[in-house]
Amino acid sequence: MKIFTFTFIGLAFTSMGISQTFGTVTSSQVSGTYGNSAAISYLLGDVSSQKDKRSELNSNIQGSAYTTDTFLFGKLYYKENYESDVYYRYNAYAEEIEIKSINVPEAPVSGLSRDKSIELVTLDGKTFSFKTFIDKQGLTQNGYLTLLSDGDYKLYKRVDVKYTEGQKAQNSFVKAIPPRFSQFTEYYLEVPGVNRIDELEISNRKLIKLLPADKKELVKSYLKENKIKIKDEADVIAILKWIEQQ
């Protein structure tokens, strides 16, 4: 890991720094295990500034906007350089990583800047980062992806949360339908030599479609000869590792 020292203390408070966060946080608000307050100020924003966005997240909604409602331990990196231990939870509906310096209820919460140079490494070693990718409709999207397989072929996972409005009961014979959050999992593949990340639907045919031309027939034959039917992310990771060994 290369050594890099933050020299842009003033940059944390410039308009560029502010535009890349969800709000602003002064160095006096950053405490706990944050070792470099100026650097961390640049990386974080004030979650309380998103009050309007969160007003709809009330107790009547079924499901959760979060992948986990509790804060989990992670390590924060900027341009591959370790910055701080943090506690985080991911609001997949708002596509926002919420950060605490210490895991106590009264600790202030900040929002992680949507900066592609920032990486959050989870306790199980997986990396969260903000990426640009292409969905199955061919549309360019931006959001957080979790790296599942870090070889020449990179497999990512995205958790997306949709919000559905509730419906009032029309009469005494029909029950009201409460509003709800629904979670969906998507997978994305980055192949060597192609500067893009494409959505991968889990199937033999869809995987082969995204592979380089010189790998398509090789993988197609391998899957057929070994009677392999790709069903989940573990199958995809196994096939990608096999390709890299050829």
Walk me through what this model shows.
The protein has helices at about 15-20, 35-45, 50-55, 205-210, 215-225, 235-245; strands spanning about 45, 70-80, 80-90, 95-100, 110, 120, 125-135, 140-150, 155-165, 180-190, 200. It is α+β, with helices and mostly antiparallel strands and about 250 residues long. The protein has an 11-stranded antiparallel sheet. The two termini are about 30 Å apart. Residues about 1-40 and about 50-55 have low confidence and may be disordered.
Terminal CA distance: 28 Å
Low-pLDDT residue intervals, each spanning 5 or more residues = 1-40, 48-57
SSE-based structural type: alpha+beta
Helix/strand order, N-terminal first: HHEHEEEEEEEEEEHHH
Give the CA-based shape: globular
Mean pLDDT figure: 81
Strand sequence of the main sheet, in spatial order?
1-5-4-3-2-6-7-8-9-10-11
- How many strand segments? 11
Q: What's the total helix number? A: 6
Radius of gyration: 21 Å
How much of the sequence lies in strands comes to 25-35%
> Biggest sheet, in brief?
11 strands, antiparallel
Q: Specify the helix fraction band.
A: 10-25%
